[in-house]
């Protein structure tokens, strides 16, 4: 069983897409084990995106991610990271496969609706940044035997 961090970014929250996005992951069979709506402050944003600190888009990225509330969640399931990444689609919504979250809802690379961990190490780090261990629940879905 694998866990991944997924975040509906400020554009997705502001456009009222949070419920639709969570529903997609749940319908796929991923289990929601933690979730919260929050406003990311500058320090958390810089820590979260620290691998991009030297890139020219870093300042704009930090400005965007702190511009409004985000919906942070932890999803659990077999191959949760790769499944969530495929469901999100390419970073650039114009290159994302139709049916993915970014293709269906995103308009621009800078406002692409959603973020998700890209590896087990990233998932562990990002979950730790946004959630305390006692906020992570464990439950069995009613349909778990079929998934």
From TrEMBL:
Function as written in the Swiss-Prot or TrEMBL entry: Major role in the synthesis of nucleoside triphosphates other than ATP. The ATP gamma phosphate is transferred to the NDP beta phosphate via a ping-pong mechanism, using a phosphorylated active-site intermediate.
Enzyme's top EC category: transferase
Reactions accelerated catalytically: a ribonucleoside 5'-diphosphate + ATP = a ribonucleoside 5'-triphosphate + ADP; a 2'-deoxyribonucleoside 5'-diphosphate + ATP = a 2'-deoxyribonucleoside 5'-triphosphate + ADP
Family: Belongs to the NDK family.
Quaternary structure annotation from Swiss-Prot or TrEMBL: Homotetramer.
Active site (record annotation): 115 (pros-phosphohistidine intermediate)
Domain Nucleoside diphosphate kinase-like span(s) in chain numbering: 1-138
HAMAP family noted in UniProt: NDP_kinase
Subcellular location, principal: cytoplasm
Amino acids binding ATP: 9, 57, 85, 91, 102, 112
UniProt xrefs under Pfam families: NDK
Protein name from the UniProt record: Nucleoside diphosphate kinase
EC number: 2.7.4.6
Record-level Gene Ontology MF annotations: endonuclease activity; nucleoside diphosphate kinase activity
Cofactor(s), names only, from the UniProt record: Mg(2+)
Top-level taxonomic group: Bacteria
Organism: Listeria floridensis FSL S10-1187
Alphabetic keyword roster: ATP-binding, Cytoplasm, Endonuclease, Hydrolase, Kinase, Magnesium, Metal-binding, Nuclease, Nucleotide metabolism, Nucleotide-binding, Phosphoprotein, Transferase
Protein localization: Cytoplasm
